[in-house]
Amino acid sequence: MKAYFSHIYQAVSSILIGMGITGRHMFQKPVTIQYPEQRLQLPERERNRLFVDMEDCIGCDQCAKACPVNCIELKTIKAVPGDIVGKTGLTSQGKKKALFVPTFTIDFAKCCYCQLCVFPCPTECIFMTDVFEFSDFKRAGLKYEFSDMTAEQTAEKKMKAEEYALEQAKKKEEAAKAAASSKSSSAAEKKAAEAKKSEAPPPEDLTQTEDNKNKEV
Ligand code: SF4
Ligand code: SF4
What we know:
The structure is a single chain. The chain is an alpha+beta fold. The chain has a domain at about 50-155: Alpha-Beta Plaits (2-Layer Sandwich), CATH 3.30.70. Helices cover about 45% and strands about 10% of the residues. It is built from 4 helices and 5 strands; from the N terminus they run H-E-H-E-E-E-E-H-H. The chain has helices at about 1-25, 60-65, 150-200, 205-215; strands at about 50, 70-80, 100-105, 125-130, 145. The relative contact order is 0.11. One iron/sulfur cluster binds near residues 69, 111, 113 and 116.
């Protein structure tokens, strides 16, 4: 009998406690956000899609080396003397740019948003943005290219760099040849001088000749 009433008490009290909680929430402000019509302000350090400001990128490859999943692909071409990389040849901090960057791809299908690529960048040109809505129907659509160099520009810069490298190698070869020939001619001169020296009479003979000369006088 005692157990019977105890069960009734427990059932009624638990219903009352639950209804009490429901009743309290009925008078609170709703917390549901009607996304996408309503959007919350994201925290400052939120990690979302990366962006690369190519005007400041010097092609140093530090970001790609730091990436744990190899989702950054970078290709560079050396600028020849007289070539201006980008609009001014300088970054916004005044650093000289010596490399063209025809390819700077980030595969966001692989990216784990760890932000490790951001910290080593010497010009702070790769950073996280607040863009988080960039899903795609195809995996390939998540590969983002940040370089704006055209295929023609890339081919031209590549050819220039190759020609310059060939020219430099030729110059180096000629300089080495010239150095080798000057070395061999100086060795020949040294040899000739030594041979001449060995043909000359010994110093005693010279003394004798001087004595004879004196006697004759
Ligand atoms: S956030 Fe991490 S995974 Fe994504 S590109 Fe940068 S280093 Fe690679
Ligand atoms: S670390 Fe910065 S400057 Fe260097 S290649 Fe990456 S984005 Fe460009």
